[in-house]
Amino acid sequence: MDLQEAETGERRPETLGEEVFGRILELIYSTELAPGMVVNESVLATRFGVSRGPVREAIRRLQGIQLVSREPFLRARVVSLSAQAILELFQMREALEGYACRLAAQRMSEAEIDALIADLEAAHSGQPPPEAARFDFHERVVRASGNNRIIDSLCGDLYHLLRIYRRISGAVPERKELAFTEHWQILRAIKMRDGALAESLMRSHVERAGRHVLAQVPETPSPAATDAEKRAS
Amino acid sequence: MDLQEAETGERRPETLGEEVFGRILELIYSTELAPGMVVNESVLATRFGVSRGPVREAIRRLQGIQLVSREPFLRARVVSLSAQAILELFQMREALEGYACRLAAQRMSEAEIDALIADLEAAHSGQPPPEAARFDFHERVVRASGNNRIIDSLCGDLYHLLRIYRRISGAVPERKELAFTEHWQILRAIKMRDGALAESLMRSHVERAGRHVLAQVPETPSPAATDAEKRAS
DNA sequence: TCCTTCAAAACTGTTGACACATTTTCAACC
DNA sequence: GGTTGAAAATGTGTCAACAGTTTTGAAGGA
């Protein structure tokens, strides 16, 4: 289980801090570290076979992207988003993805647009892709905006938070069909170079998605906070 | 110069990491650590009379909010924004502050709006306030949006970056007059509860401010990068 | 003179130990 | 039986030393 030995293939020297960061992220995604649970430095350090330094660094980085909350001498915990916080998260997505969509309508080349349309339809009609190269419409549009700051914010920090709560709303067939239609309309607006329309459509789409997630998570202020203590020991 | 001794007044236990973070921030604001200059862990540690641990933590936090750039084993440097990066920064502000403005138009009470109008006019007609309680129109509007995630992003991370480059465009009388007019128009739209108009006006206003900053910083890919080495030694 | 090579210097990454704060335990006391 | 308060236990904050990597700069060759 040692980290050093796991690094067999030669690649450019990655620090332990980076590695541990990714490992903890996986623990959070897999709900082994569920929202509300405590993130213990020593426990993780011994588990990964490293000292507390790199673990501490990784946790601080997770704090930076708001995945764990913490105050000076208190224990760190995986964030447990309230309904209010989820609403705010999707509002921020509305603002940023809407604007990114407007930029994309201005900057994408005809070829890029056509390629994106083709990929969208292929992903919809074809069988589910091999997960490795999954088609992510939102990420594609955001990256097409060309604004690296917005790209980093949406595909970095916010994406991690969304991913925790995406599992909830995933795999609902009817929603999937509706999403395809909305995605297709957005691309149509981009192809027409109507930035304002594209932005408006994207906002509506994100807002709808947000409402859907909120409906699935009606009232769970800190679901795993209590029994988390048990499992941590 | 020791940090422990400087902390004479009793307050709740703040960690050295927090303290050092603030100190380095001040060094960056005062241009003692100018864009492009190296941020050396050991040097700062001895300067502040602490070990490298807290300094390292503070630097990592500065990396998190994108004020210093760094790769694994390379030296950390204060970011030196390119024209492209400044453009992207203001675009993100457009998206976020515009949306915040729309939210503010929906959520502010009549009393809050009137108070904000009064403060705006007082700050404009009256003599420059005592700096401590400076009137910041943008921050007031953003906080009025009620979206904590957007508030943290704009008043936290982005604000630090803007502040470094705000010095450049500050104290230009004609710009100041124009800004007041634009601020006043935005508030008028908010009072009319016209969120779409308020958002549109705020976007134009931010974009104009961005162009103004860009005009002052035409071509300086890394101005202090070269002579920074000298001063660092 | 310029480029290459290679060792010393400087710096960052990592570690284990120690100091301090918080939480929990548990016994004395109302 | 419930409450209070001190001490143990747990966990975070800080430090100094060591290890690995990058940079520096001087010697050697074309």
Automatic annotation (TrEMBL), chains A, B:
Signal peptide interval: none
Domain called HTH gntR-type: residue spans: 14-82
Matches recorded under Gene3D superfamilies: GntR ligand-binding domain-like, Winged helix-like DNA-binding domain superfamily/Winged helix DNA-binding domain
UniProt keyword annotations, A-Z: DNA-binding, Transcription, Transcription regulation
UniProt cross-references to InterPro entries, sorted A to Z: GntR_C, TF_FadR/GntR_C, Tscrpt_reg_HTH_GntR, WH-like_DNA-bd_sf, WH_DNA-bd_sf
Top-level taxon in the UniProt lineage: Bacteria
Protein name: DNA-binding transcriptional regulator, GntR family
